Amino acid sequence: MPTHDILVLPGDGIGPEVMQAALAVLDAATENSDLELRLSFDLLHGAAWERYGAFCREETVAAALTADAVLAGAVGGPRWDNIRVPGGPEMQDGLMRLRKELRAYAGLRPARAWPGSHSRTPFRPGLAETADILVLREMCGGVMFALPRGQETRATGRYALDTAAYSEGEIRRIAEAGFRLARGRRGRMVSADKANVMESYRLWRAVVGEVAADYPDVRLTHMYADNCAYQMMRRPQDFDVVIGCNLIGDFLSDLAAVVSGSLGLLPSACLRGAPHGGPVPGIYEPVHGSAPDIAGKGIANPIGMILSIAMMLEHSLDAPDIARKIEAAVGQALADGVATPDLDGTASTSDMTAAVIERLGA
Ligand code: NAI
Ligand code: MG
User: Fold this and answer.
1) pLDDT-based confidence at 183, cuts 50/70/90?
2) Exposure check for the chain: N or C terminus, fewer CB within 10 A?
3) Which Gene Ontology terms of cellular component type are present (predicted)?
């Protein structure tokens, strides 16, 4: 069994709290397996800024490039959100830099209903109990990265510019990832765009349509993103894989979190390549941010981070059986009513972690 290198970047705010919890689950879940893990730790974003004056150091990029997987807590906070350093958008955000440097373009953001958590969603009975949506977000291009961008003052007042741009190759590779994932699920894919009003989305729609020819077993539907958001809330159980650009995928993945009951439950994977049946390197992080409003209180829900570790075991470490074991333990803890405050309960981060670890053997 080869040793797997994992770079751990706890991050800011609740990042280190949920990371500590999730590593305890990883430790317990792999205890009697033959999986050999070598963990190394580094700082990212705010924590790195305070120590090194950079959001992401070259050393961190180099370590991430050679690791089998990177685990990231969450980054950011009011202390750093308005700092601007020389360079493009990826230099302003440690996680964006890592995604870009690693070409981790395929952002898998699964959101599913969990037993026992339905009562915490706004859905009426019967509408979302079996919902299981995989939002696939393009992570390395689009309006969040494209140039030119900037702010200036003109005679007419202040002016700001962003650019929405995608190349055919960028669209093709994310579309292929989407079709492969849909093929392994329920065989349906919705592509969300704004092809009615924007050129980059016209190309998006055309290229996704072309790639579809190679996947006749997947049913593709194009939707305008605004209607897609509406339909996802109206009939969440009808959705399987939903692909979108960096911006639309960001919005739709937080929206999909509603079917789970809390943003704190959502994991994510940013893969450095399309899934192909074997291990793919990737960055694993919860969908949520650093939650400064609850940081340091010991009440953050660790499940998004715990399930991100399950995704790492599945996609980068070739250990889907251990991933399933962790997911089952999470499902059992939620079904038994263990709930942190975001799920209207009183369990602390460590109570929830202990509850998951207790159920690993079940
Ligand atoms: P957020 O996701 O941090 O928080 C939104 C709301 O959800 C807050 O009320 C928070 O308390 C709650 N929440 C989030 N995660 C939770 C958890 N695990 N358990 C319980 N409650 C949870 O988003 P917000 O407030 O917009 O951003 C805060 C900071 O995080 C900003 O600096 C932002 O830039 C950064 N951010 C970082 C991300 C990342 O690292 N991938 C993603 C999104 C935001
Ligand atoms: Mg988001």
Assistant:
1) very high
2) N
3) cytosol
ipTM here: 0.98
Dihedral of CA 280/283/285/288: which sign? negative
Question: Phi then psi for 113, rounded to 5 degrees?
Answer: -75, 140
Element (H, E) at 29: helix 15-30
Domains of the chain: total: 2
Residues 243 and 275 in one domain: no
Cα(60)–Cα(113) distance, integer angstroms: 36
Where does the pLDDT of residue 311 fall: very low under 50, low under 70, confident under 90, or very high at 90 and above? very high
- When mean pLDDT is compared across 117-121, 261-265, 281-285, 321-325, the lowest value belongs to 117-121
Phi–psi pair at 71, nearest 5 degrees = -110, 125
Q: What is the pLDDT of residues 268-298, one digit of tens each?
A: 999 998 888 889 999 999 999 999 999 999 9
Q: Secondary structure of the chain: what % helix, strand, coil (to 5)?
A: 40, 20, 40
Angle between helices 349-358 and 320-335 (to 10 degrees): 120
Closest ligand 1 atom, residue 291 Cα: 3
Structure tokens at 94: 């440690």
253 CA from centroid of ligand 1 (Å): 13
Task: Tell me the CATH number at 158.
Answer: 3.40.718.10
Dist CA 297 CA 135 (whole Å): 30
Q: Which of 232, 260, 288 is the C-terminal boundary of a domain?
A: 260
CA of 286 to the centre of ligand 1 (A): 10
Supply the pLDDT for residue 361.
84
Please give the Cα distance from 256 to 105 (Å, whole number).
Answer: 20
Closest CA to 101 of 18, 44, 150: 44
Instruction: Output the furthest CA–CA distance in the chain (Å, rounded).
Output: 68
Distance from Cα 110 to the centre of ligand 2, integer Å: 13
Instruction: Kindly state the tokens that stand for 152.
Output: 């200036």
- Asked if pLDDT for residue 118 goes beyond 90, the answer is no
| Closest Cα to atom 1 of ligand 1 | 289
